[in-house]
Amino acid sequence: MSIFLDDKEIARMTLHTWQIGLDIQNRQCCAIAILRRRQGWQLCHWWQQRLAQDTLRNGVLQSSPELLTVLTRWRKRLPLRYSLRVGLPAQLVLQQPLSLPELPLKEPALSRFIQAAAQRLFPVDVRELALDYRLDPTHNQLCITAARLDVVQQWLAPLTQAGLKPRVFELATHALKMVTEQAQLAAGSVVVLRQDARYLWSDGISAASLAEVDGLSALREQAFPQASHLFYCDADNLSFPEGTRPFSPFQPLRYQPPLPDNPGAFALATGLALRKEDR
Description:
By secondary structure, the chain is of the alpha/beta class. The chain is built from seven helices and 17 strands. It is globular and about 50 Å long.
């Protein structure tokens, strides 16, 4: 299923670059395209497609003729100009904090500094890793992210074969943080997303994930006991637990109906679309 705006509106929007978030999970994939307008973020397109149960194995994308057909058909409906951001499951990524050097560094010296640090921070040969970093001004440090190159290539291969050109792979937890931040919820709010046996959560400042926890109550007690408002979304289920409120990722966007029956399934795709462009 996919929804576009009317033809005239599409014609105007395709002159600009769409920011697209693509979230691929077992059983379904969801995508959101947005465009920055003077009044805020405009929803251009949403798309949802059923997939096989084993589309991901241990978080790694499995290529198949069925997946390629789905992605190729979707690509044909997109404009030529787009910035595609693809979600990467949290369990595939290693993260470590790194103190900033005493003397400020610029590229390429900063990249060399991070490469050298990665040699001791991660238990894998740095030549086998795709590295990225993000400034954490709250703690005056860098957050170093590492994913195995062969895993990234497995994700990239079917997308490339379908004619898609991802601009970036982004951590799923960071995507949830982005959409939670943009939703501007009341202080003390936490958004929880359930995907199979894994929970992701964010308060708009930080985000994390955990698997094999004994339900939402146990997660709340363990991870965010001080939360005063709990918003919940489930990739597969419209119902939400007692004591929570449904979360719609479309809240920060301007849009025309109809919207998906389960807006919560689009939480990560929306966060990916809202991701700022790298400079």
